[in-house]
Amino acid sequence: MNSPQIMRSVGLDYELLDSGNGRKLERFGTRILLRPSSICIWKKLGERWGEADATFVPGQGWGFRGKPFEEWDLDAGEGLSFRLRLQRSGQVGIFPEHALYLPEVLTALRQIKGGGAPRVLNLFAFTGLASLYCVCAGAEVTHLDKSKQALAWAMTNFELNSLGSKVRLIADDAIAFLKREKRRAKCYDVIIADPPNFSRISRAKTWELDRVVIDLVEGILALLDRGGFFFISCHQGYGFAETVENLLYQYSGRSKIEVSSTALSLKETSTPRRLPAGMLVRGRVP
């Protein structure tokens, strides 16, 4: 079984132990979790499913094999710690597939020319894994997320690593922020974005990627300095990469812009099987 591209991950203490029958078995550091995954239509193979410390069932919440727990710290590699927390949605505060492209982000930071620290804008930045790595690489990081809960969680992770004063956290809508920064003539060397497919902002208002992707791509290009890098990931697979690449061509004035895309996937520890986890589009402006 071949993958179109194998990406080198940072040292996140994570394993996809097994998957199948609509579920996935994952190890996040010292905890093994069993969670639903509708994409896992194949059969499970391993015998470790009974080792799950916590199991999430939609509509019921988390169940525990032993003593209940809510949060724990994960070794995120490079001497970094990362606080995880069981959520009512079944999430834990980290998407392991993001660790797959962080080595490319760090390489990009090392290629930034000029004096001073590289300027990084992390949009839809969630709980801060990418921002942590960028700060540790010496970058000036603007970490933006609309959710104040996510920002508070991110600050916990920065303080956990004694980096609370090294990052600028902003609660704002990403599209509105991009437009304001453009009016201010601000520039960044690296822009990272992981937009959700869909989000309910209020009872009457929703956020849909299909409706804002044009503004997102245009805004990112407008704020990138010459020779700047962008990394745009998304859990939406079908057509996302092609759409973004076409928009990049359109809004770059058809200039020669370096761009490529790859599928993100998590490999099982003991088999060649891979769990699809979205798409990544990355590149560099002239």
Please give a structural write-up.
- This protein is of the alpha/beta class and 286 residues long.
- The protein has a domain at 93-284: Vaccinia Virus protein VP39 (Rossmann fold), CATH 3.40.50.
- It has helices at 102-111, 129-136, 148-160, 174-183, 209-223, 240-251, and strands at residues 14-20, 23-28, 31-36, 54-57, 61-64, 71-77, 80-85, 119-123, 140-145, 167-171, 188-193, 198-200, 206-208, 224-234, 258-267, 274-284.
- It has a 7-stranded mixed sheet, with helices on both faces.
Explain briefly what this protein structure is.
Helix content is 24%, strand content 35%. The chain is an alpha/beta fold.
Radius of gyration: 19 Å
Principal-axes geometry comes out as globular
Biggest sheet, open or closed, and with what strands and sense?
Answer: 7 strands, mixed
Provide the CATH top-level class of the domain at 93-284: Alpha Beta
- Strand content is 25-35%
**What is the β-strand count?**
16
Order of helices and strands: EEEEEEEHEHEHEHEEEHEHEE
The poorly predicted ranges are 1-6
**Spatial strand arrangement across the major sheet:** 10-9-8-11-14-16-15
Q: How far apart are the first and last residues' alpha carbons, in Å? A: 37 Å
| CATH architecture classification of the domain at 93-284 | 3-Layer(aba) Sandwich
Please, how many helices?
Answer: 6
CATH topology of the domain at 93-284: Rossmann fold
State the helicity in percent bands.
10-25%
> Can you identify the CATH superfamily of the domain at 93-284?
Vaccinia Virus protein VP39
Coarse structural class: alpha/beta
Q: Mean pLDDT, as a whole number?
A: 91
